[in-house]
Amino acid sequence: MTQPTDPSAPRSGDTHPGWAAASGGPAHPPTGSGDGGGAWAEGGTLFAGVLMGVGGIIGALQGIAAIAEDDVYTRIGDYVFSFDLTTWGWIHLLLGIVVAVVGFGILKGQDWARGAGIGLAALYVVEYFLFLPYAPVWSVIAVALGVFVIWALATDG
After folding, report:
1. Mean pLDDT of 22-48
2. How many other CB atoms sit within 10 Å of the CB of residue 10?
3. For a 10 Å CB count at each end of the chain, is N or C smaller?
4. How many CB atoms lie within 10 A of CB 128?
């Protein structure tokens, strides 16, 4: 007597990811393939919210420091884009507050926060690119984190 076989189980030799369509197997793809990141994107979105909250607070503190003391940052080299440090302080303070609020909105799962987060992360990247002469190492790190935030928010379904 033969045992009944499961019709959704792959037959021998069916090792290609497209075996399901040909053999009547499961309709969903294997976990982790072709789903745009799946768990990575979900964890990335949570991490993006944390990064935006913390980055916004740090940006606001940098802004307060630049507004309070004009000699907190020293300009390194000559750069095409230059603002007075007090102006940079206000830019950091205002953008930092808004980025932190949107970051906390992402953590709470607010629908509006994801789109706003992508836009603000792009603005954050531009801000820190222009701030390169004052804090080159932190600016490069902030740009990289901003690009990660954009990716995480854009790929999470």
Report:
1. 57
2. 14
3. N
4. 23
